Amino acid sequence: MVSLGTSHGFLHPDVQKCSRDLDQLLLQYYATRRSKQ
Asked: What pTM did the predictor assign?
């Protein structure tokens, strides 16, 4: 994502989509970790 942002600018739609996808993955990861504890 940083590489995309550096080459296209952080407001580029592809970078924004990548950021949203990463946020979703992180939320899933933390929810999974929380449920296992």
From this structure: 0.78
